Each structure stands twice: as C-alpha cells, then as structure tokens.
C-alpha cells in the first residue's frame, strides 16, 4: 500500500507485524487515534535494606532473567564513548543467549564491535533512532533478516508505552549513583549531563541495572533516575571513554560555507515574523545548525529581544545564552559537552527533561509542541521539502532520526540548513532516498545558493521577500545544482526491505531497501 | 608524450582531487589507478575526463594515480592538466 507521500509500504513484515501507512503529520493526533498503552510498568517486591549491589555486570545480568528472544535496552548519552552496550552483549553472547532484540535509543561508531552478533544470530532485531558506520553499512547490505526499525526520540517513548518495544532488561550507565540505584549523569568523572532518554527504560523495563563508575553516598542527587525502578546496581572501573563522552565546549564552526548558510538562516528567522520577545528556540549541535545560534545571539542583543526557552540537545553555547539572560530556561534532554553537565547540576533554570516530556506525541503535551523556531540539518531534501537524515548518498544507513521529525512537527518555523551539494553530491533531490521528516512540517530550506520557502506557507515567503532575501523556487535550485555537479548515477537496490522508518506517531513514513553491493 | 618527471597536483580535501603522475619505461602504455568517494555516482564521468585529457596530450608510458573526494568537473580538469604539465616540465613560475 502507498502512504500519503507515495511510498510503497508493505502491510505486514515478519518479525515486526502489521504496518500502518503514514497519512499526514497530524492525521492521527487530529482524530485522537492512538494505540492503547498495553505494557504496564512491572511490579517488584523489595524488602527494606535489601542490597541491590552486584559485584559484576555479569552477576547483575544473571540475576535479571536473561533468556532467548529478550529485548535489551540502552541509552546513548555516552555518545561515542559508550562501552557498556558492547560489554553487555558480549556477556549475553557468552551465556549463549540468542535472538536478542536490541533497543538502544541510538547506536554509534563505538558499537561496531557487535557486528559479529548480527551475523551469528545473537542479535536479530534492532530498534534505534540512529545507526552508523559498519553497522549501518552491514544492515543496508542486508545482514539482518528482520528489518531494523528507525524511530524518533519521541516515537521511542510511544513505542515503549504501547509495547512495540517491550523491554526485558535495561542497562543504564550513570556517572553517579548510590546503592539503591538513584542515578544521574550530571556529575562524576564520566559526567554526560542529562540522562533524559533512559527515564522511560527505567520505568518500563522488567529488569533495570544501573551501572556506574562513581558510587556515591546515599542519596545520589539529583534523582534523574530514581531508585523505585532500579533492580540492580553495579560498580565498574569505567562506564566509558571520558574523552569521547563529553569534552570542553562545543565550538562554532569555522567553515566559511557553514557560516554563510547560518547567517542566511538567521536572516530568515529575523524576518520570518517569529523572532519576537518570548520566542522558543532549538538548534542542532551540528556545523551550520549551531552556528545559527551565534548569529541569532547577536540579533537578540542588537534588538533587545529575550526568548523564553531553548530545548533539546544542549551545548555550551546554549548555556552561554542562558547565562547572558537571552533565554529564561533550558530544557535539556541530552547534553553535548562537559560544561553543560555543570550548568545542569547547578543552575535551576537549566532543567533535565525525559524524552517523554521532550517529544512523545501521545501525551498531554510535549515541549516540542511549544517550539517557535527550530533549525535542523539534512543529508538530503527534495523538492517537496521531505528530509532524509538517515541514509547517505552511498546508500548506507549513516545518520539518526533523533528529534528531527518531532521538533519539525511542533515548531511554528522549521528551518532546514544544508549546503546545496557536498563532495559533488547534490543535496536537493527530486526525491529523497529515505523520508524521515515530511515536507509538510518543513517551512524553509536555507542553502548557500538561495532560500526556498515551502509553497504552503505564502505569508512566510512574502515576509522574506519583503526583507530582500534571495528566494528561489526549490525546483529551480535543484536544476541549478545539478548543472554544477552533474546528475549522479543511481544506486541499485533489491526488493528486500532492511529498514522501516517510523514517523513519530508510529505510522510508517518510508522503508529502506537492501543496497546491491558493487 | 611521456612524463619526464614524477609530478602531482591537488589535495586530499573534500571536494578536491589529488593526481600523482610518474613516468614508466618505454612501451608500458598507461597504468591508471582511480579511486573516488563518489565512484558509484560519478565514476563513468571521472574516467571519461581523465582519458580525454590523457588523449589530448597523447600521454603514454604513464602511471597515474587519482584520489578523488568529490571534486567538480572543472576542478578535476584543472588538477589533471596541472599534473600533466608539471610532469612534462611545461609549467613555469609558481605553477611549477
């Protein structure tokens, strides 16, 4: 069957179940259609002063009822410094556990060592926001029988509520924890800031192990993760490579191209009609995206505009803007550098939020619904403004859905920033390879070669034209770029589906086909 | 013509290409080693550009290595022309 964006979606996939085609960003919400929460959080019986401490991760796993076909979950707040996901799967593999469903909130290069487990049947299903590097290549080439499911950060919470992801064991690394499992990422030698993605795992997993390299006296505050959900606590020498978890401050890009795009994007925001006192703002941590914050900061100072809150992945740059009084509050679901942890711990206007509050579409209101302006990146964008942030130009899975579609759907103004081509590959396509974020939720594309406004937003286009900005029809820009780069030859795919991309409401917005190896 | 000396042009940067040329013994013909990050999408056009330019200089007994990171056509042509002229000792001044 075709979804509303014209993508062919199978009705059923073995190992995943019945698929519901995407019908529009707000179609299900408008109708009030949602899946019932089918998975109650588990009951536990713990006696007063019973010890939760285990000597090793292995002991904790043995006490957590490991079994074939189990679902194991992780959070990705340690980014590329994480070592516990690989360790946990090594232990399960050595115990002979097979057919594991891996439900990490995202996967990074540091998880490449689990590739043999995909080959030998230890891991047979994957739910994740992102997949990269060797795993992304192997999955695109068809290493798994069952397609991986790509979800957004908000969509993951929904999937856990509804039992699509049914977690048997959650392993939660924390940079500080106490003997009862109260845990946080905001202090300790391996501090990583907010632990927002893991909160839902702690709540719903049948067994929860907190792993820390910094056992503190009871109680460990703040209670980012609280003891009433934690079964076991393990103390290890290290939860990860601190140099890859979070370092120093995030610097603004020096790339002239990114700065040019960022400056244009800031001009777009200034003249959009949404740059008003009390506006809520989110930027990604990537090159051009973060650089937009630099120019917006200057414009806010010049015009004396103060914003309400910044949301999302928080960098030191956001902290600076909070401390400058340019924004009232930071809502932090994920922290990107070491300075952020400190602010999160000590500034009461810098608030740690769980993924559910950040972006779950099916609750009484997530914070992404309150965003005025969000700036997002793209691997590809097409003439219908659909955005791909998951598959690369070479056909591999090499990105993450993240909060892209969540924030785009909530924001009054969604600005996508990207160069018009990268290394001879045009970024503006007639049709993106994989849709993650639907064009109806994208208002404007900013490239170094011109600004394209989604024709559905006439007033915005008028505002920007009146300001004298270089507005181009996206079809014209697409042709212009092709003339410069040449038209790339097509990649070849088989009929086999290797990935299913969920929209935040759980409908299927696109599928990823197996790449033919050359 | 055959290269007089080993020569190179270009860089390993993204959106650029590096060409390395060295002379081969007489009657060796051409030995080409081309790699590109966009081989799948633009491999055919890259090979065509290289062959056309080697033909136009009637190059033979040449070992040519190309490592491309997505250079545009004009960049590829300029880099290759420079590498060829350097190998023929035709370049002067700062282009040498």
Quick structural gist:
The complex is a heterodimer of chains A (518) and B (96). Chain A is of the alpha/beta class and 518 residues long. Chain A is 27% helix and 23% strand.
What would you say this structure looks like, in words?
The complex is a heterodimer of chains A (518) and B (96). Chain A has 518 residues and is α/β, with parallel strands linked by helices. Chain A has 16 helices and 29 strands. Chain A has a 10-stranded mixed sheet. In chain A, strand 16, helix 12 (338-346) and strand 17 form a beta-alpha-beta unit. Chain A is globular. The mean pLDDT of chain A is 96. Chain B is an alpha+beta fold and 96 residues long. Chain B has one domain (7-87): 2-Layer Sandwich (Ribosomal Protein S5, domain 2), CATH 3.30.230. Chain B is built from 2 helices and 4 strands; from the N terminus they run E-E-E-H-E-H. In chain B, strands 1-2-4-3 form a 4-stranded mixed sheet. In chain B, a hairpin with a 6-residue loop joins strand 1 (7-10) and strand 2 (17-23). In chain B, helix 1 packs parallel to helix 2 (73-87). Chain B starts with 6 loop residues before the first strand and ends in a 9-residue tail after the last helix. The model of chain B has no long low-confidence stretch (mean pLDDT 94). At the A-B interface, loops of A face helix 1 of B.
Structural key phrases:
heterodimer; A: 518 residues; alpha/beta; 10-stranded mixed sheet; 5-stranded mixed sheet; 16 helices; 23% strand; B: 96 residues; alpha+beta; Ribosomal Protein S5, domain 2; 4 strands
């Amino acid at each position: 069957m075709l979804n509303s964006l014209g993508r062919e979606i199978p009705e059923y996939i073995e190992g995943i179940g019945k698929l519901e085609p995407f019908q529009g960003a707000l179609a299900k919400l408008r109708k009030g259609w949602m899946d019932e929460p089918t998975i109650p959080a588990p009951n536990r019986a713990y006696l007063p002063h019973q010890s939760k401490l285990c000597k090793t991760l292995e002991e904790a796993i043995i006490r957590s009822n490991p079994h074939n076909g189990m679902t194991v979950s992780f959070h990705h707040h340690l980014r590329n410094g994480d070592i516990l996901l690989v360790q946990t799967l090594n232990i399960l593999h050595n115990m002979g556990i097979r057919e594991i469903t891996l439900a990490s909130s995202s996967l990074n290069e540091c998880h490449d060592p689990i590739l043999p487990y995909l080959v030998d049947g230890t891991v047979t299903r994957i739910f994740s926001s992102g997949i990269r590097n060797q795993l992304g290549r192997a999955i695109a080439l068809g290493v798994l029988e069952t397609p991986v499911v790509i979800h957004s950060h908000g969509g993951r919470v929904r999937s856990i509520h509804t039992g699509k992801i049914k977690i048997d064991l959650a392993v939660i690394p924390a940079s500080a924890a106490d003997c009862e499992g109260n845990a946080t990422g905001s202090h300790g030698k391996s501090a990583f800031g907010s632990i927002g993605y893991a909160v839902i795992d702690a709540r719903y997993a049948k067994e929860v192990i907190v792993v820390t390299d910094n056992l503190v006296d009871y109680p460990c505050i703040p209670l980012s993760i609280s003891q009433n959900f934690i079964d076991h606590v393990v103390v290890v020498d290290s939860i990860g490579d601190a140099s890859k978890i979070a370092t120093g401050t995030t610097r603004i890009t020096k790339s002239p191209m990114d700065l040019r795009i960022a400056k244009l994007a800031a001009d777009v925001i200034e003249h959009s009609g949404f740059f008003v006192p009390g506006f809520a703002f989110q930027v990604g941590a990537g090159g051009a995206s973060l650089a937009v914050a630099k120019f917006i900061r200057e414009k806010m100072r010049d015009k004396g505009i103060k914003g309400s809150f910044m949301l999302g992945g928080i960098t030191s740059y956001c902290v600076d803007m909070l401390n400058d009084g340019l924004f009232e509050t930071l809502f932090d679901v994920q922290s990107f550098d070491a300075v952020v942890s400190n602010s999160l711990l000590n500034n009461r206007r810098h608030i740690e939020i769980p993924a559910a509050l950040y972006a779950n579409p099916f609750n009484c209101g997530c914070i992404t619904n309150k965003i005025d302006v969000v700036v997002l990146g793209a691997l590809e964008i097409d003439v219908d403004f659909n955005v791909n942030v998951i598959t690369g130009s070479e056909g591999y899975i090499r990105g993450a859905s993240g909060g892209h579609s969540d924030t785009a759907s909530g924001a009054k103004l969604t600005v996508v920033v990207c160069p018009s081509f990268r290394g001879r590959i045009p970024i503006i396509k007639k049709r993106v390879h994989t849709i993650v974020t639907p064009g109806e939720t994208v208002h404007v594309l900013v490239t170094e070669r011109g600004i394209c406004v989604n024709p559905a937003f006439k007033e915005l286009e008028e505002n920007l034209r009146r300001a004298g900005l270089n507005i181009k029809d996206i079809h014209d820009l697409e042709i212009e770029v092709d003339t410069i780069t040449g038209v790339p030859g097509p990649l070849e795919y088989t009929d086999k589906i290797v990935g299913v991309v969920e929209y935040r409401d759980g409908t299927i917005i696109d599928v990823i086909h197996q790449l033919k190896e050359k | 013509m055959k290269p007089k000396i080993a020569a190179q042009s270009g860089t390993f940067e993204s959106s650029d290409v590096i060409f390395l040329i060295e002379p081969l013994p007489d009657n060796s013909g051409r030995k080409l080693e081309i790699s590109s990050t966009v081989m799948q999408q633009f491999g055919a056009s890259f090979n065509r550009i290289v062959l056309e330019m080697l033909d136009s200089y009637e190059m033979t007994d040449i070992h040519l290595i190309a490592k491309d990171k997505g250079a545009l056509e004009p960049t590829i042509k300029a880099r290759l022309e420079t590498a060829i002229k350097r190998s023929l000792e035709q370049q002067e001044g700062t282009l040498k």
